[in-house]
Design brief:
By secondary structure, this protein is of the alpha/beta class. The chain has helices at residues 67-77, 94-100, 115-127, 164-171, 185-198; strands at 2-5, 13-14, 32-35, 84-88, 107-112, 134-137, 152-155, 177-182, 201-205, 208-213, 216-221, 225-231. A 7-stranded mixed β-sheet has the order 6-5-4-7-8-12-9, sandwiched between helices. Strands 2-1-3 form a 3-stranded antiparallel β-sheet, with no helix packed on it. The chain has a two-stranded antiparallel ribbon with strand order 10-11. β10 and β11 form a beta hairpin. It is globular, with a radius of gyration of 22 Å. It starts with a strand and ends in a 9-residue tail after the last strand.
C-alpha cells in the first residue's frame, strides 16, 4: 500500500510502498488516497477465484461441505450477479462464502442454529474476503422469517425438521433453484419423496482419497453424498 497526498497540489507527496502489517508512516494529509495492491503473503495458501477452496481455508469443527462436493454444489446452485442465496444449516459457511466470492454483487444469508458455529461462519467470511455475509443465528424454519427473497436455497442440514423444506420451497420465486445435500438414509427418504412430487435431478456422489494401507497405498472412500437439485417452475409451484 502507498499513501498519495494532495495530488496535483503544491504539497503533493507520495509515501513509500509498504505492507499493512509493517506500516509505520506518519499521519497523512487529510486530502489523500491510498493505493493498494493485493499480494499473497509468503507462506499463505493459494486461494483460487472459483468454487472449491481447500478445506484448510476454513475454521470448522467437522461440519463442513468438503472441497469437491462443495464445487459440485456451487455448480448446481449456479450463482449469477446480484442473486441472493439462503444457506440453511450453515455449518462453517463454506457454501455461502464461495457463493459470494463468485461476484461482488451477490448476496447471501447463512442460517445456523449453533451460536458457536454462527460466530465461526462470520470469522471465516471476514478472513476469506466476504464480510458482507449475513449470519442469522437460529433454527430453521422459524429463523427464515423476514429474510430477503432468495434466488437459490441450499439446505445442508436439518432436512428432517418439520416444515423446513416446505418453508424453503414456498420462499422461492419461479425460476429459483433449490439444492439439498445429505449423507443419511432418513434425509434421503425426504429427498426421494420431494423428487417424486417436483421432479428435478437426484444424484449420488462418491469420492475416495488415496491413503496408506500398510506399506502400500489404497483408496479410502468418504461417505456417499446424495444431492437433489430442482428449479421452481409454474408446474412445480405448489407447497410440499
Amino acid at each position: 500500500m502507498r499513501v498519495l497526498e494532495q495530488l496535483g497540489g503544491p504539497r503533493e507527496r507520495t509515501g513509500p510502498w509498504s505492507t499493512a502489517d509493517a506500516w509505520d508512516a506518519p499521519e497523512a494529509d487529510p486530502l489523500h488516497i491510498v493505493a493498494v495492491e493485493c499480494r499473497r503473503a509468503p507462506g499463505a495458501p493459494r486461494l483460487g477465484a472459483v468454487p472449491g477452496l481447500p478445506d484448510e481455508a476454513y475454521a470448522h469443527d467437522g461440519q463442513l461441505t468438503k472441497r469437491y462436493p462443495r464445487a459440485v454444489t456451487l455448480a448446481a446452485l449456479a450463482p449469477a450477479p446480484g442473486e441472493v442465496l439462503w444457506d440453511v444449516g450453515g455449518g462453517s459457511g463454506s457454501i455461502a462464502i464461495e457463493w459470494l466470492r463468485t461476484h461482488p454483487s451477490c448476496r447471501a444469508v447463512s442460517v445456523e442454529r449453533d451460536p458457536v458455529r454462527a460466530a465461526r461462519i462470520t470469522e471465516n467470511a471476514e478472513r476469506l474476503g466476504v464480510p458482507a455475509l449475513r449470519v442469522v443465528t437460529g433454527a430453521a424454519p422459524a429463523a427464515l422469517a423476514g429474510l430477503p427473497t432468495p434466488d437459490a436455497v441450499f439446505i445442508g442440514g436439518g432436512l428432517t425438521a418439520p416444515g423446513l423444506l416446505d418453508a424453503c420451497w414456498a420462499a422461492l420465486p419461479e425460476g429459483g433453484r433449490l439444492v439439498a445435500n445429505t449423507v443419511t438414509l432418513e434425509s434421503e427418504a425426504v429427498l426421494g419423496a420431494a423428487r417424486k412430487r417436483y421432479g428435478g435431478e437426484l444424484v449420488r456422489l462418491s469420492l475416495a482419497h488415496a491413503a496408506p494401507v500398510g506399506g502400500f497405498t489404497g483408496w479410502r472412500p468418504a461417505m456417499p453424498l446424495t444431492q437433489w437439485l430442482v428449479e421452481k417452475t409454474p408446474s412445480r409451484a405448489d407447497t410440499p
